[in-house]
Amino acid sequence: MTDPGGAPADVLDLDLGFAVKGHIDFPNWLGGTGNVSVYADQLGGGYNQKILSKDITITANPTDPAGTTPIPWTLTYPADRPSSSIPLSDPSPPPGSMVYNLVAVFIFNGVPSDIAAFVEMGNYMIN
């Protein structure tokens, strides 16, 4: 998680936006479309939504023996916010805390399956 200053941050300013970066270690013999989404669950409040989402094209590159390839991804707020989600600042100020637990989720070919993963990113104050 980075703010516009580049340093990892646990307090994020919505006016400046923020970026979430990561990678997926993916079997190099498998190709298709993946999706990375970030969900926010507000502590003490009613906000619980997908706040970022992006499809990723994964190209197979088989080798012998089979291995993995890191697939990097970056999501930025608000550019990658799904149109169906309510912005984090709405309503302003939010009821409850301004602290959110964030989780990144990866799914492959549009369905939760054996090829999926998640990582709990931790708590962030977002205002």
N-end to C-end Cα span: 15 Å
Order of helices and strands: EEEEEEE
* Mean pLDDT level: 88
Strand content: over 45%
Secondary structure blueprint with pairings:
Blueprint: E1 11-12, E2 18-27, E3 32-42, E4 48-58, E5 68-77, E6 99-108, E7 111-126
Parallel strand pairs: 1-7
Antiparallel strand pairs: 2-5, 3-4, 3-6, 6-7
In a nutshell, what does this entry contain?
With 127 residues, the protein is mainly β.
Molecular structure report:
The chain is mostly beta strands and about 130 residues long. Helix content is about 0%, strand content about 55%. The protein contains no helices and seven strands. The protein has strands at about 10, 20-25, 30-40, 50-60, 70-75, 100-110, 110-125. Strands 1-7-6-3-4 form a five-stranded mixed beta sheet, with no helix packed on it. A two-stranded antiparallel sheet has the order 2-5. Strand 3 (about 30-40) and strand 4 (about 50-60) form a beta hairpin. The radius of gyration is 16 Å and the shape is elongated. The two termini are about 15 Å apart. The model has no long low-confidence stretch (mean pLDDT about 90).
